[in-house]
């Protein structure tokens, strides 16, 4: 008999690898935070002893989801800015509030609220971009969450840094601080094409290549990004050497065939943020055209100020529905001289589960560490109870998760084998206290809004 | 002091009428199933005594939602048919299963599962279209739900009726059976334009006019509906006198400006079914163009075989996101000679709440009975707890419901003053038994599917 820390038996397990697999009555064995084995429950009982046996008889167990584009601290502004015009929303609603309130305390309280939102909906890793990233990282560490912390880079002066060089220097110091952390990694996060000079982007590329750091940037979100000279963002990034597998481009709504060709040639990944893109009136990222060129897709919620939550289950559903039903005239049909296969099958529910887990992990440079349930990877898991009127009968477990499950069916979540949610209760977060602090911020911010 | 049956105090109340109103710390007084008053909680304590005082300190109370297009019995097929091609889905996946299994027992068990799905997500009235409508009505009565039961009409013979005349006769008998029922009404439901002759549609119109019955029909769902002579469905319905305020047209994806003009001139309502339309690959109903012509919009989920649930909260969210972010080239811009106002403001969260409640009630002929919280109307209510990480802080209660709330935050539901869901538990439905029967059907149906 081999001894492990935890054995979790579930009615169904979707390991993501191999693709499309659904295991009945299996168990996951966990030791020192990592997956040791996945095997039929009966065999698990013969082979292992465990400190803790967990049985989930009407549940599906799968990897925790990886949210590849967030600004968790903005959870404090959920519902505070409801314009559906991105430009107005950002310049007249969000930026004035951030200029008035944004500091390390705000980031700490907002990030903890955001992490509570994420854990309770089955997310175990998020890629965050915001100012005061050291405050974000502190909260991630305290809550035992996993995150890839964006190191913000822009030319403009803010409360956090005054020049592009200062952003880079502070960011790289933070990277050094977490170099050996098992839960926290970092990525370089130039704010947007128009916010960073060629010289700064070149410094970003050099740092990324040297440290093997992912780079993430919002691209073509609410209009085609072009420089002052009219150069398209994708042409510029290609010229500067940034179109590589290290790049994770977020949003990508307003793109044309030339952008897609360049993205595919560079091997970049794209963080699809369907709810934020729709809510802010930007439109729909042309997923079928990206797939036709073999571009890897991930999912992100954006901030709670434009979503208005961090629910990846809901985000998967919206993404799947849009890919089925929305056409992109001019992009959906491959050009006649294209090498792309003529007939790419539509994405099915298993594809969406992979996009929300393994694809996200890979885009963040964590493909060997998380995103699927295979021995050796960290035990980052979520467990979803299907015993509800709206998730029975169960002909198709994957379709059930993508199209029917709601977030409160997530009953347990583990990060590196540690239970951060148990039977619906957060274990490292004092939820009442988090909600109380959120309400205090609302009173301050909301009061100021109404007297303006 | 006036005595009432029930007083419900909530942190927020959204009565829908007046539009946009949010009441703080108010209470609803209920007597004999109807709303007596809505007033500040303090005044309610001075003015009323009550058999039952219910306090919901972190909750919003609003009218139960009205789902205007369902086929509840198809809940038994949730996830059984996952094609995103409507024609293939219907002819090769759904119809063979229905031909093999559909009978009154199937309809009873499926409808009860569907009603459990609806009540637990805050719906208090649904408009259903399916064969064996008397079985549907029996379950509605037993579960104390409210429904408008569609009386199916088609030419084709089925297990329920052999000819259009038999459908009409059986349907009108059912109508008579429930003529004085406080919870059950009926509507005429010709299956689709291509499934009914001119003579039958004329008989439908006459019965509708005589009995003041709503008429509902799927229109232009996955392709433009035309007759054998090439006449567009809207032209045909106009010629036959069916384009009137009694008509509730469902789906309406593939429509052009002439259809919209005819729909507006007739004063019909449209049941927008965004999730089903997307999932089956049909596209998006052009909501902004319908609004520009003043056409009343309602919401429907379609069946759980194409959605895959009956969650109106989720449906509202999808509808709101699509209306913000999806364009309809050729329809969004009013023609230059149009009388429509140039600048119609985008739909906001309060508009969506009204669409999901009062607009639905009106389209079903129940506008004076339900859909808003005003004295004299039935107390059809749902109560949603906002004390969650993903629904705090609360700057904007309506936006919270449309964009952030998940279905399991619905903790109490009343139909005509009777609690059908209390603190998350169904009171007239034995959920374990319903889930057990659903699983039995799955074993039968799923087994047959796999051996085909």
Write a structural description.
Two copies of one chain form a homodimer. Chain A is an alpha/beta fold and 452 residues long. Chain A is built from 14 helices and 16 strands. Chain A has an eight-stranded mixed beta sheet with strand order 3-2-1-4-13-14-15-16, with helices on one face. In chain A, a hairpin with a 2-residue loop joins strand 15 and strand 16. In chain A, helix 11 crosses helix 12. The longest helix of chain A has 20 residues. The model of chain A has no long low-confidence stretch (mean pLDDT 95). At the A-B interface, helix 3, helix 9, helix 11, helix 13 and helix 14 of A face helix 3, helix 9, helix 11, helix 13 and helix 14 of B.
